Amino acid sequence: MSDTKKELEEGNALSINFEKRGGLIPAVAQDGRDGSILMLGYVNRQAFEETLRLGMATFWSTSRNELWTKGATSGDFLKLVKILVDCDQDAIVYVVEPQGSGACHTKDPATGAARKSCFYRQVNLKTGKLERAE
Amino acid sequence: MSDTKKELEEGNALSINFEKRGGLIPAVAQDGRDGSILMLGYVNRQAFEETLRLGMATFWSTSRNELWTKGATSGDFLKLVKILVDCDQDAIVYVVEPQGSGACHTKDPATGAARKSCFYRQVNLKTGKLERAE
């Protein structure tokens, strides 16, 4: 194993490889209370630094092409608990404590409130259709 | 909201938008037993279909540029429990039951066994250095 690879995987230097993925890496937001996965967004260096500065999960919106602190408009902030970094430092997990009703921009038709997670559907492995996640 | 967007977000038709992300979407592998996040990989249509066919989490290796069924060489298969799909159908979660010692290609120096998760380090929010994840 090269020294560079060893340092990347086993070292304590934070050197997230944004460049490897074109400047943006995937960031998973996970609820620290129950382990559920809330959403997946993308993060560039600026969004990562803003997350550290604010203590709130911040992404780079690939649709609006702008910095996006989750909750800045809705109030549904995702308060940062910790940031996990993977072996080759090109993916991260924001472990968070949701401050509002939900992390998803969609609303539950039954309640009208933002859904807690964007992953509210699962694939029915027999039919190949989507159904409500259990 | 357009009908297309409504169907994408609220419908039961599986129509994963691989094209939106250049043919590859991020796929999070999550341990169905304790909710921990094991790894993040990428999936194209072929890898997704192979996952359904085998019942084992399969990715597209962006480094080797080939289909990659996790565990095919190491034995550390990730047996599929369910697949979650997000609101705009461009990210998925493989909820899995790990069959081997670990999902990561790195080894724990203390045991010599594959680490359970690729996310074995966290950012120390005071120093900005990496430390062992709690």
**How much helical structure, as a percent, in the residues of chain A?**
10-25%
Order of helices and strands of chain A: HEEHEEEEEE
Biggest β-sheet of chain A: count, sense, barrel?
4 strands, mixed
In terms of per-residue confidence, which ranges of chain A show pLDDT below 50 for 5 or more consecutive residues? none
Please compute the radius of gyration of chain A using only Cα atoms.
16 Å
Strand order in space, largest sheet of chain A:
2-1-6-5
Shape of chain A: globular
Residue share in β-strands of chain A: 25-35%
Number of helices of chain A: 2
**Care to count the β-strands of chain A?**
8
* Multimer state: homodimer
- What is the largest interface, and how many residues per chain? A-B, 43 and 43 residues
pLDDT averaged residue by residue of chain A: 96
Structural class of chain A: alpha+beta
Terminal-residue CA separation of chain A: 43 Å
Q: Mind explaining what this structure looks like?
A:
The structure is a homodimer of 134-residue chains. The first copy, chain A, has 134 residues and is an alpha+beta fold. In chain A, 13% of the residues lie in helices and 32% in strands. Chain A has two helices and eight strands; from the N terminus they run αββαββββββ. The model of chain A has no long low-confidence stretch (mean pLDDT 96). The interface between A and B is large, with 43 and 43 residues. β5 of chain A pairs antiparallel with β7 of chain B, so a sheet runs across the interface.
